[in-house]
């Protein structure tokens, strides 16, 4: 059973996990959520702009949106993070100081915007063309029809895909550590990696992975729930009626018995 002892000591050393748990919870988890949520919010805003440009009738808007999407979806995430984090480091230092934290968020935001833009574009184009034509027939301008009718329907249809994209951003946030974050800015992976080096085993990294699972697994089930809800609708079909009441109504009247006259 030496192999079992070795595996337990390497991956499931409880004292090492307990030692790093406060840092993972108070530093790593907080920074991971900050990076992921900030990148998602910025990515949603930029993605909507890219989606609107992508479905525009003007090629001067459509072609740049296509190029942006192809570039940031085609490059590996780590390459984009390093190019932005190191290429704009001097410019960022004059604004944010030595922290590469904002550049990491910016890189993830640009990557997310390329994917979210495609998600929005697919959702908007899935709305029936008649919706837009009906709005125009009622006197609404193209911009108002898109903003008030078409875009809200498209967003509602792609909510599960947006949650999936947020899950991807949470996992990609572990790549920001390549920029050399400060001690108080370390995300889950960097905290677990530093603790693994100090303790000499991989138990802190396993615990960091469990933290990622705590975030991503419930969101995955939430995606499935929303997807099923949007597909089936909120109203449940009414159970079929037995029809007995209708049968009672069409029953022939009881025969009239003539009594004898006395």
Automatic annotation (TrEMBL):
It comes from Leifsonia virtsii. The keyword Transmembrane applies. Gene3D superfamilies: MetI-like. Residues 236-262 are annotated as: Disordered. This is Amino acid ABC transporter permease. The chain crosses the membrane at residues 33-55, 67-89, 101-120, 166-184, 204-226. Residues 29-223 form the ABC transmembrane type-1 domain. The keyword Chloroplast does not apply. It is a multi-pass membrane protein. Belongs to the binding-protein-dependent transport system permease family. HisMQ subfamily.
């Amino acid at each position: 059973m030496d192999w079992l002892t070795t595996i337990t000591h390497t991956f499931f050393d409880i004292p090492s996990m307990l030692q790093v748990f406060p840092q993972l919870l108070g530093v790593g988890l907080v920074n991971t959520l900050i990076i992921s949520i900030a990148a998602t919010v910025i990515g949603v805003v930029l993605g909507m702009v890219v989606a609107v440009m992508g479905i525009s009738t003007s090629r001067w808007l459509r072609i740049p949106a296509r190029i942006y999407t192809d570039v940031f979806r085609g490059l590996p995430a780590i390459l984009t993070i390093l190019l932005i984090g190191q290429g704009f480091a001097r410019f960022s230092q004059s604004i944010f100081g030595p922290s590469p934290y904002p550049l990491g968020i910016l890189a993830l935001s640009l990557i997310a915007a390329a994917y979210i833009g495609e998600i929005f574009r697919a959702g908007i184009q899935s709305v029936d063309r008649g919706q837009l034509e009906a709005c125009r027939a009622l006197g609404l301008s193209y911009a108002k029809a898109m903003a008030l009718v078409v875009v809200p329907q498209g967003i509602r249809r792609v909510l599960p895909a947006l949650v999936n994209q947020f899950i991807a951003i949470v996992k990609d946030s572990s790549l920001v550590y390549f920029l050399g974050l400060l001690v108080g800015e370390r995300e889950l992976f960097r905290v677990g990696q530093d603790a693994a080096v100090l303790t000499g085993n991989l138990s802190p990294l396993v615990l960091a992975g469990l933290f990622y699972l705590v975030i991503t697994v419930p969101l995955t089930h939430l995606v499935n729930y929303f997807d099923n809800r949007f597909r089936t609708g909120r109203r449940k079909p009414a159970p079929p009626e037995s029809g007995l009441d209708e049968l009672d109504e069409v029953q022939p009247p009881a025969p009239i018995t003539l009594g004898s006259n006395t």
